[in-house]
Amino acid sequence: MAIDLTVVTPEGQAFQGEVQTLVLPGVEGDFGILEGHEVFMTSLRPGEMQVHQGEEILRAAVSKGIAEVHEDHVTVMVGSCEFAHEIDLERAQIAADRAKKQLEEMRDSEDGKELYQEYQEAYSKAVARVAVSEK
User: Fold this and answer.
1) From CA 29, how far away is CA 91, in angstroms rounded?
2) In whole angstroms, what is the distance from residue 9 CA to residue 42 CA?
3) Which region among 15-19, 40-44, 77-81, 111-115 has the lowest average model confidence (pLDDT)?
4) Cα dist. 74→9, 24, 95, 112 in Å?
5) CB contact set of 118 (below 8 Å; sequence gap of 6+)
């Protein structure tokens, strides 16, 4: 029993294959998907995606996007998807530090309120990359 998973980014297909279970970062919290899951569509936040294939768990940092779930097929459409082995931890940490600094500067600036959401998403994505690469 398996779920057919497709992960798509603007650059193309990031993953295609059969998985036993899947954990995605929903906007209301992480959620798991098993074969036969109720059909639904939901928004995703930047975070960690866990792909369970047999005994192996593949971890990926994904940006915001959407997931379309069917009984035996899941399509994940995100701005970016990086599996743990693809992430350069040093670059990810630098990006997280830079985004955190920008957030702090925006908080203290009148003009920054408009850009705050953009920097918050960049920070969340960078933190997810660091967390995934360290596992």
Assistant:
1) 27
2) 16
3) 111-115
4) 14, 11, 30, 37
5) none
Q: Which residues neighbour 81 within 8 Å (Cβ) at sequence distance 6 or greater?
A: 7, 9, 14, 15, 49, 60, 61, 62, 63
Does the global pTM surpass 0.70? yes
Which residues in 30-63 are b (16+ Cβ under 10 Å) and which e? ebebeeebeeeeeebbbbbbbbbeeeeebbbbbb
Q: Which CATH class is domain 3-84?
A: mainly beta
Domain segments of the chain as ranges: 3-84, 88-134
DSSP assignment, residue 110? Answer: S
